[in-house]
Amino acid sequence: MSAVCINGDNRRLKSLVFLICCVLAGSLTHLIESPKSLFPAITLAVILGFYAIRVVFSASLKLQDQIPVQDDENELPSVDILVSARDEEAVVGRLVQRLIEVKYPQKKINICIIDDGSQDNTPLILEELNKKFSNLKVLNRSSGLGGGKSGALNYALKELNGEWVFILDADADFSDDILLRLIPFANDGNWSAVQLRKAVVNSQKNLLTRCQAMEMAMDAVIQQGRQAMGGVVELRGNGALLNRKSLDECGGFNEDTVTDDLDLSFRLLILGFSVGILWDPPVEEEGVESLKALIRQRKRWAEGGLQRFFDYWPLLTSNRLQISQNLDLTVFFLLQYALPVISFIDLIASVLTKTIPAFFPLSIIAFSVSGLAYFRGCRLRSSYGPKVPYPNLINLISSIIYLSHWFLIIPLVTVRMALRPKTLVWAKTVHKGN
Question: Once rounded to an integer, what is the mean pLDDT over residues 308-321?
Answer without folding.
Answer: 91
